[in-house]
Structure formats: structure tokens, C-alpha cells
Amino acid sequence: MSQTIVQPIGQKRLTNVAVVRLKKHGNRFEIACYKNKVLSWRSGVEKDLDEVLQSHTVYSNVSKGILAKTKDLTKAFGTDDQTKICLEILDKGELQVAGKERESQFSSQFRDIATIVMQKTINSETQRPYTINMIERLMHEIHFAVDPHSSSKKQALEVIRELQKHFPIKRSPMRLRLTVPAQNFSSLTEKLGSWSASIASKDESANQLSVICEVDPGLFRDCDAFIRSMQGRLEILAVSVHCEGDTHVDHYDDHEDLAPASLPKEFTESVAELSERLQKQALSSGNGNAEGQVKQNKCSTCNAFVGDSKLYREHFKSDWHKHNLRRKTRQLPPLAAEECLADLEIGDSNADLQDYSF
Q1: How many CA atoms lie within 13 A of 72 on its CB side?
Q2: pLDDT in tens, 54-97
Q3: Hey, CA dihedral for 222, 227, 231, 233, is it positive or negative?
Q4: pLDDT tens by residue, 128-184
Q5: Sheet containing 18-24: order of strands
């Protein structure tokens, strides 16, 4: 007597997938998606539904390949259209993440939080910024755990407050220009003293006073409200001041007593070297044709095309780029590398390089 082998019909077993689960009307519904695609869909990066769903099918259990019953779908969603139901589950369902994927996400968000903390803080004793590795080590010492349901910026601010309890760390100050009527000078000075603000420069004229100061970012709203109450004006010069050589008022005020000839030789050589490399690269990119420029990276600050990635990164570390950043804060047009050299050679006292401080 022969035996009949009965095989299950209508079952599709899926492995190595990302499962999105939604419970509704007492039933569990699941859809099978490609890994690392659900978050891209929800953030709007991925637009093609077929690149997200492995099949336009609703399951009651993906791992066992059990399909959801039509009557349960109609009862829960009011329709049996599989694609529409998949879209609702994709948007509202809970993503089941594997252990390694979750660990990778936590590690990436931990790094993002540490980067934000590094950008917003300085050492209160040395007034110098911490490195990213130091920040991560301090976060491990306070046993910080990433909350995947909270934004990185919000958690970074919480980390800063917790680190301040145990280590010499503080928020890097904001640099502001405050302009008020002259009769309110004493009130402004008194208020800045109560905020422990550092005054870098004062400029008094016949009817108004302009002060460049550095205050704690947490006081920005109070400062803005106070200046508005005195019919004054507030201007943000720097959101975070913690770079060495970036705290001197000469970067924002004009001083004609400093001649370009006083610039060190190293600055001239660095600008000349970078200019020469850019010229050589322009010649090698097809004699400056339009197609060659499209392939180049453009620095919007210096309004210059920089070639390969290595030279592009070096450009951001150059004195030329740093000087144009300071010109940008003063709403001045950028200088080309050749213009910097020309100004140095002729010793023009009106050149904007004269406010470069070392």
C-alpha cells in the first residue's frame, strides 16, 4: 500500500527578512520586508514600495509562512486589498530588529550623540575642546545608555548635564554682538555681569553701544528678550566658540594698525602652495572645461573648485579657508588664493587680511 505525502499548500516560509508587526482587533498581522529598508521608507528616502516589501502579502506569522485570513483582514482594516494593508502596517507597525542590527544602530547613535557633545562643550579648566574619543570614554564612565526612541540632540544635552556633575566640562559659549541705545549702557553691563558673560570688545558711538561678548547658550533666550526690551539688536557671530585662535575680537573688528607684512611666513607659504596645487589640478582636468569642473568639489565659502577628496579635505584645514570663514561672518566676499598673495606682496594696508590674528 503506497503512502501519500501531503505537503502544505499556500505557505511561503521567509528567512533573513525584517518583520513589521501590527496588532489590531485582537489579531496579529505581519509583513516581510527587506533589511535596512523600513527606516528608509519611513524617513522618505526610499520611494519604491517594491524595494521595501519582499511580497505584497499579509501574514499572521512570517517565520512559519502562515497567511492572514481574509475575514480577519476585512474585520481589522475594512478591506482585503493586500497592498493597502501592507502600507498601513509599514507605517504604523512595530519593526522587529535583529540583535546585530540593533547593536549597530545603538553604536551609530552613540557616536552621533558623542559628536554633538564634543561640538557643544569645552574643558572648563583648559578652555580647550575634548576629542571624540575622550567624550565617548566619559560617556561610558557615567554608564550612559542610548534611548532609540529619543533624538540624538536631546540625549546629547542630557549627557552634557550629567557630565557636568562629575567632570570639568561646560557648554562652549556663544559669541554675540549686542547693540543697545547709549542710555542703556549701565543696564546692559550689569546684566552681562550677572550672566558671567565675557566681554571681548566695546564700541561706543554718539547714540548707541555695541558689545561683543560670549555667553552661555542656555542664556540666549533671556539675552534676546532683554535686548528686545531695550529696543536693541542681537547678532549671532558664532554658535559655539571652542576652537583655538577663534576667540579674539580682532576677527570681527577692523584694526588698521596691523599691517599685512606682519603675517608670518608660514601663512604665505601655505596659501602659495595650495594655490599652486589648485592650478596644476585645473590644468590636468581638461584645460578647465565645464565637464572637468562638474567632477570637482566646490567650497562655497571660498567660492573655489577643489579637486579630489584628499585635496578637498586639506582645503578645509588651510589658513585660506579659515580666513574666508572669518570674512563670511563679517558678510564680506571671499578672497581667492592669488588675491591673498597679491595683497601680501604689495603691502596694501586696506587688505582684509590685516585682521588675521595669530
Answers
A1: 15
A2: 888 999 988 888 899 999 999 999 898 999 999 999 888 888 76
A3: negative
A4: 888 889 999 999 999 998 888 788 888 998 999 899 888 888 888 888 888 888 888
A5: 66-67, 59-61, 27-33, 18-24, 94-96
What's the Cα-to-Cα distance from 209 to each of 93, 94, 203, 220, 232, rounded to whole Å? 58, 57, 6, 19, 9
Q: Distance between CA atoms of 54 and 33, rounded to whole angstroms? A: 5
Rounded to 10°, the helix 319-329/337-346 angle is 90
Please state the domain extents for the chain.
17-96, 100-171, 174-238, 302-347
DSSP string, 75-108: HHHS---HHHHHHHHHHHSEEE--HHHHHHHHHH
pTM for the predicted model, two decimal places: 0.46
CATH tag for 100-171 (out of 1.10.10.900, 1.10.760.10, 1.10.3720.10, 3.40.50.1980): 1.10.10.900
3-state DSSP call for residue 194? helix
CATH number among 3.30.1250.10, 2.40.240.20, 1.10.10.10, 3.40.50.620, domain 17-96: 3.30.1250.10
